[in-house]
# Entry
Amino acid sequence: MSLVLDAATFQKRCAGLSMVRHQAGETVLTAGSKTGHLLVLMSGSVEVVKNGAQIAKVSAPGAVFGELAVLLDQAHTADVRTLEESDFYVANAATLLAHDAAVPLYVAAVLAQRLDQANRALVELKRQLQAGAPGSVIGTTVEKVERLLRPGGDLAMPAIPTVAAADRHADAMAGSPGRRDP
# Structure
């Protein structure tokens, strides 16, 4: 039995929490504010906006928002706005984290998965840069890293283009027959 809950089980554990519904276009968390709340997306879709730029769209039930502000004891660093009617569980973070050991483990696991995948993507990005991969391939990898590091980061993203794929792309662009991977 795993110590870390899956998203569905985590949501079931949250069922006793307060629930709030926001209409499309409402701001749920505001950059610079310090709410002390954790929000868990039950249904709907949100965007995460930082410095006026959308950095993520999230619709995965069980996605947690506000965790970094709570864990780092700082203000929220981005706005979270609903794109459609959305339901959230709302919890006083200090209470929830202190009284249910499964919650910090779930949040830690989500953050650890994002960090692990972002680290792997950064390693691949370094390989691409060293191999002189085309800008389009490098750009795709940078976008992948950004998606992985966002709140509610998509952990089931397609594979990152590899150096071998970049070589094939470069060969194709140059009109050469292309190499085969060993």
Remarks:
- The chain has a mean pLDDT of 79.
